[in-house]
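Troubleshooting log. The previous structure file for this entry was overwritten by mistake, so regenerating from the original sequence record. Sequence copied from the archived sheet and checked twice against the printout by T.R.
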Amino acid sequence: MNISKIDLNLLVYLDVLLRERNVTRAAEELGISQPAMSNSLRRLRDLFDDPVLVRTSDGMTPTERALELQPLVRNVLAAAELAVLPKTVFDPSESERIFRIMASDYTEATLLPKLLERLSVEAPSVRLDIMTPSDVSFHDVERGKVDLVINRFDTLPQSFHQIHLWDDSFSCVLRADNPIIQDWNLETYLAAKHVWVSKTGMGVGVGMSSDDVQRLGWVDEALTKIGVNRTITLFTRHYQAALLLAEHNDLVVTIPSLAASSMHENPHVAILKPPFDIPRMRLKMVWSPLLQHDPGHRWMRQLIKSVSEEITG
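Regenerated output below.
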């Protein structure tokens, strides 16, 4: 196929169609009529000899070939945008930019305090808009409406950029005078009542169940592997709330160690190693290819990476 004979605007149309998965919305975003968008979809189908989008009960669903093309097309368009945009310089000391960051409660407790310290010195007028996982969808990130997502993920769209920030072990936080501390082992751990705290991924959450081990996460999956389970009295998505409950009740909170470390100076709690092995959790930073080459965005990513390296030593 001779590329000089291909209308490269079709790649722009394909990118928007795969993001919107709706011909009408894609046409609105591109500022063209719906018939023109439908005609472009027909031409894309001819070009790739593939349906590209197929109408199903869930709406317009991309074919396997379309999903393979999506990250490739996004990268091509991002490179083209970089080539034609004027060269700009981002000065953090003068910028008043607002960075929208989706951060889990764990990230707020571990990364943000040190990040704010650095910003106060290097970029005093830069502001952060911190969003929760239930505020944001992958679609929002893909369209560049959210600058960065910092969380733990089971799966991610192939088109997203990502870097690994750190791995963390787990610790147990209990009230300092909790009697089971004197006989801390797997048996007493299982006999205790527990607080579950987590929020993996993105999107509006749904209620939890003790029977859904896979959704419960690392701690309960580790227990299942050794043939036991714990009694969860309370489900929460907030680490600080869980730690407060541990301080004032005979409850056990098993959370990532960096989050637990915020209680090291608190004489009312004890921090113990779990009496069984739990795989380490991995924290990632994720962003849209639309923002990959933005100078300010690049600066913020580098700053967060630097801060994460400070935190983990």
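The domain at 98-166+282-311 is CATH 3.40.190.10 (D-Maltodextrin-Binding Protein; domain 2). Archived copy saved in two places this time.
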